[in-house]
Write a structure and sequence with these properties.
It is built from 22 helices and no strands. It is mostly helical and 448 residues long. The longest helix is centred in the C-terminal third of the chain and has 25 residues. The chain is rod-shaped and about 135 Å long. The N terminus is likely disordered.
Length: 448
């Protein structure tokens, strides 16, 4: 009995190695059932039973010897022993010969000898008669192995043979295997047909679609340029297998199909669950916040990305954060970021923005200070905005001539010309009023 248990254990250990099709188990039935070896493979009661010879105890003992050698790590010796049995194959019945080749296949597979594994399994099929379930498991294994070595037509052929022998139109795993083969052949419509069948069969059994089947279905829809269907499958992946990458991918697909509100909702939910960990994804979420009217959240998230060292404080990233703070009217927070931008940039635009910030805070001396820095550094996108900011500062400091000079430098610009001319007129009017007051009340009015 111990010998029997150990042998079954060996076959089961080998079976676990045969995870060829993305986690689909290698088909291997129990080989022994007590001493009645011939009744091991139960046949369908509704079918005519296939008759085959029994596995004799003498042959069983020889197989057990080969198994013991393999267990001891003497794989070469175990294989040599089996080849000795093969040389006397004319003394074995069909079932016994099939078991020798089946055992050889397992040993070759354990040694990563795929072609030899296939050859041994093919030898199993050459024996006649053998238990129907052994034939089925061997056909399925050959389909998996041929997928592994990229012989897709052979894989399809073995699955079709398996289906015919089993009298089964297919199960979710076999349909998934066929889908993989057709996908590899770039026959996407057929791949989709078998994927949909795999999913339907799984649901009919009360299960959920296999993760690898959904991943392949998403890839097929992508190849067929069907972004809305890619999005639908991405939703299923989040629904059934809530992994961080699936949340991110779903958010990206919502953006692809123009559903920005859903994109932001999904990405925000993913962030709350701790799924948004890459710097690029954090910035994408920050940009979504900004575009959807939440600049404060955008700038705060950029802070989080910087502080966790997930995002580099590059010029582009700092420019985006400074813009978000400014749009959120958080000028005190925008100032240090703009200072960093100014130190990195080759242009004076950041100094110009700082001048604008200080206009909002009515700190006129600083407006002039940063305006001059902006003009000195140069390469400005809109130097006119700097001149207008400085014109306003000089006006509030009652330096009317300097104010007019700044506005004059801006009035030639098509975008800001009209504003500059209005300011020039206003400054002139206020200057005249001031001069009139001085004439009436004397120089002391200048102190007011």
């Amino acid at each position: 009995m111990n010998i029997l248990i150990n042998t079954v254990s060996f076959f089961l250990r080998l079976a676990t190695l045969m995870l060829i099709f993305n986690g689909a188990p290698f088909v291997m039935d129990s080989v022994f059932n007590g001493s009645n070896f011939a009744s091991v493979y139960a046949e369908d009661s509704n079918k005519k039973k296939r008759r085959y010879p029994a596995l004799r105890s003498r042959v069983f003992a020889q197989l057990e010897t080969a198994q013991k050698l393999a267990d001891e790590g003497k794989v070469k010796e175990g294989l040599t022993f089996l080849k000795d049995m093969e040389r006397r194959v004319d003394q074995l019945n069909s079932y016994e010969a099939a078991m020798v080749y089946n055992f050889m296949a397992f040993i070759h597979y354990g040694a990563d000898e795929t072609n030899l594994t296939i050859r041994a399994f093919q030898k199993v099929l050459e024996q006649d008669p053998i238990p129907e379930t052994l034939e089925q498991s061997t056909l399925y294994s050959l389909a998996q192995l041929n997928m592994q070595i990229e012989k897709y037509d052979e894989a399809i052929n073995y699955i079709n043979r398996w289906s015919k022998v089993s009298g089964d139109s297919g199960n979710s795993k076999s349909e998934g295997l066929l889908a993989n083969a057709y996908y590899a052949k770039k026959d996407y419509p057929r791949a989709l047909k078998h994927l949909d069948k795999s999913i339907a069969l799984e649901k009919a059994d009360g299960g959920v679609p296999a993760e690898n089947v959904l991943i392949l279905k998403r890839a097929v829809h992508y190849e067929l340029n069907q972004p809305k269907l890619v999005t639908a499958v991405s939703e299923d992946l989040v629904r059934y297998y809530s992994k961080p990458k699936y949340w991110i991918e779903l958010g990206n697909m919502y953006g692809e199909v123009g559903e920005e509100a859903k994109q932001m909702a999904v990405m925000e939910a993913a962030h709350q669950q701790g799924y948004v960990t890459k710097g690029t994804d954090l910035k994408n979420l920050a940009q979504l916040y900004y575009m959807n009217g939440a600049p404060f959240k955008a700038a705060k998230l950029m802070d989080e990305a910087f502080e966790s060292d997930k995002l580099e404080k590059s010029l582009k990233n700092l420019e985006f954060q400074s813009q978000a703070w400014m749009v959120a009217k958080e000028f005190d927070k925008a100032i240090p970021v703009l200072e960093e931008v100014a130190s990195q940039s080759d242009s004076g635009d950041a100094y110009g923005q700082l001048a604008e910030v200080y206009v909002n805070q009515e700190e006129w001396i600083k407006v002039i200070e940063y305006g001059e820095k902006a003009l000195d550094k140069g390469q400005l996108k809109d130097s006119e905005t700097v001149h207008i900011a400085m014109g306003m500062a000089y006006f509030n400091l009652k330096q009317y001539d300097r104010s007019t000079d700044q506005f004059t430098q801006a009035k030639s610009n098509e975008k800001f010309g009209k504003m500059a001319e209005q300011w020039i007129a206003y400054v002139s009017k206020e200057k005249s009023k001031r001069q009139q007051l001085v004439m009436e009340f004397g120089e002391e009015i200048e102190q007011l």
